[in-house]
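Slide 14.
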Amino acid sequence: MNESTVVDYLRLINTEGIGPSWFYKYVQKYGSVCEAVKQLSLTKNLFSSKDAQKEIENAFKQNIKIITCEDKLYPPLLKELNDAPPVLYAKGHTDLLKYPATLSVVGSRNASVAGRKIASRIAYDLTNADVLVISGMARGIDSAAHKGALYAQNTKGPTIAVLGTGIDVCYPEENIELYEQIADQGLLISEFRLGEKANISNFPRRNRIVAGLSLGTLVVEASLNSGSLITARLALEQGKDIFAVPASPFENKAAGCNKLIKEGAVLTENADDILQTLALTQTHTLKTSQKATLAPKSLDFEKKEVIMQKTKSADKENGDILQTIGVSGIEQDELIRHLNMQTSAALVKITELELEGILQKQNGSFLMLTKEGLEKIK
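Slide 15: predicted structure.
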């Protein structure tokens, strides 16, 4: 792809108020990214061409590739998402974006020693079975999974880390050695601009990419309010297999895993439990030590009537949020307090509405409804 097209991509996606959903709407309306930029520049204050050019130059200096959704390197599974990131930053072995068998591993940041060992061991065995492990490089389970994968295949195993920061920012800082090892053996990717620091609202967006890149998601140690369950929910909505490691009912930090299993997730004690299911539901040849005999379970809440109930509940929740923001807008913290929701759940809702182009952030934390959002509260 020529540089001028990449500049147009960066200008459009980095313009305030234009998330992935609006990006694709504008491209569909005007026929191309180039024409969308040309037409919108007449009425909007677009991200400047100079800043986009500088972004490309800075990426080149750091050996970072900028991949657009039109690029041949762009992962096919991710392209299936309605809100797929139009631009990805990649550092490392970009051929891994085409890996045929992938699984995301997520779980508690404050994980137990036993939980970290399980995640690491399963990731190690999956990597040796030619399944690529994907995670978010957070503390706890994420880091353990990456380390297990890196140690596989005679300590040359690959893994993909999806970052909730700019790709040139290591978060958490203590993972700098892991960050560098993944860049060397595997791949780091991010949809955020270079230099972007960690922001709590970035991580739900990161989670949809983790889920989107994978054939299935394994959850290890997750509380009922864990962000890992958000990733599992996103994976489920994408039609992916869900796996969960069971835990003692007295362990609150793992209650989310037990809940997933009750709802039909595959009870997972080792890598073979995952390999058997993937061998049945995918066309890829996987290395398993046992014959696959069990059909994958469908989750109970995929039943039509339950989905309808959840849709009605979500619509009401979204309506409450939009009415609270109103025509004058509101600070994000004030909205969360008013909604009386868990902060993590509220941030997911805000992020979803932002990605749908219904609301936008100004000055970092002030929420305003877009034209489409205002139409919904009339």
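Speaker note: The first strand starts at residue 65 and ends at 68.
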